[in-house]
Amino acid sequence: LVACNILTGIGTTLLIMYPVSYYVMDVNVCAPAMLVAVALAMSIDYSLFLLTRFNEERLDGRSITQSLEIALATQGHTIVVSGATLALCFTSMLVLPTSTITSMAAGAATAVLQSVLVSLSLTPALLLTMPRFFTADRMLGLTLDGTPFGTYRRASSGTVAQFGATIDRPTIIENPQPKKESIWAHVGRCSQRGAPVMFLFLALVMVPFAMALTRFSYVEDLTPLMQTTHPATKAFISISNIYGQDLTTPVQLLIMAPSQKAMASREWSLATCHMLQDLATKVTDRMHEEGHDYTMTTADFNGLMIFRGGCLADGLKFGVIDVMPAVHMYGMYDMVADLLSNRNQTATQVYVHCQVDLFSEVGEAWMRAVRASLPRPEVIRQPLGGHQDADSANYVPYGRWDDVEIGALHLYGMPLEQMDGAQYTLRRMPYVGLAIAAIVCIILGGSFGTALIPVRAVICIAWMLVVTFGASVMVYQLGYLEGLGIQALSPSSGQALFWISPSVAVAVLVGLGLDYDIFLMDSVMEHWQSGKDGKSAVVTSLDQAGTIISAAGVIMFLAFGALLASTTPVLNQIGFMLCVGVLLDCFVTTKVTIPCLMALVPDDANFWPLKQSATRELAIGREPSFGLEGIGQPPGFRRSLSWKWKYGVALEHLGHTI
Question: How many helices (H) and strands (E) does the chain have?
Answer without folding.
Answer: 21, 15
